[in-house]
Design a protein that fits this description.
The chain has 3 helices and 4 strands; from the N terminus they run E-H-E-E-E-H-H. It has helices at 10-22, 71-81, 98-161; strands spanning 2-7, 30-37, 41-42, 58-68. Strands 1, 2, 3 and 4 form a 4-stranded antiparallel sheet that branches. The model has no long low-confidence stretch (mean pLDDT 91).
Length: 162
């Protein structure tokens, strides 16, 4: 499987990716054959001329070659590590009993419901923040209008004195 990460600074990205992928070694029913972690590379942006040094993002990936006893374990690993790519090398055909299939499908369904819940909560919070921003913009516009009005009155007073 290939796991990709993006972040900054590059050193932190490397440490985080290595720490994340090395957890594979601690899973009792997985045998890790190899783990290779790439060096971070800068993510090129179209507006890179305007990007400050602290805003530069990096990406890196880790490739893990491992084996596990069953498809259920593999699917759990996919949920835990969220890889960008997976390749099943052996066996050429995979079969599972109904118990394993049921567990896998219920796991997928449960996670989809949790992700949907998170997305709805995030959407509601974004909506509330947008409403608060709209209110703030209205307050600023009202204050700006009052400042303009007061400034005009002050200018009239100054002109009357002169």
């Amino acid at each position: 499987m290939i796991v990709e990460m993006a972040g900054r600074p590059a050193e932190h990205l490397s440490e985080s990716l290595e720490k994340h992928i090395s957890i594979l070694n601690d899973i009792k029913d997985i045998t890790v054959h190899s783990i290779r972690v790439s060096k971070p590379r800068e993510i090129k942006r179209e507006d890179s001329a305007d990007v400050s040094e602290e805003d530069i993002m990096f990406t890196a990936f880790a490739e893990a070659d491992f084996e596990c006893d069953n498809f259920g374990r593999l699917s759990e690993t996919m949920f835990d590590f969220m890889p960008s790519s997976v390749e099943v090398i052996e066996p050429p055909k995979i079969s599972m009993d109904t118990y394993e299939a049921t567990n896998l499908l219920n796991n997928i369904s449960g996670r989809m419901h949790r992700y949907d819940e998170v997305a709805k909560i995030a959407g509601a919070k974004i909506g509330e923040m947008n409403r608060q921003l709209d209110t703030a913009y209205k307050v600023i516009e009202e204050r700006d209008a009052k400042i303009v009005e007061l400034t005009k009155k002050e200018i009239k007073k100054i002109k009357k004195k002169n």
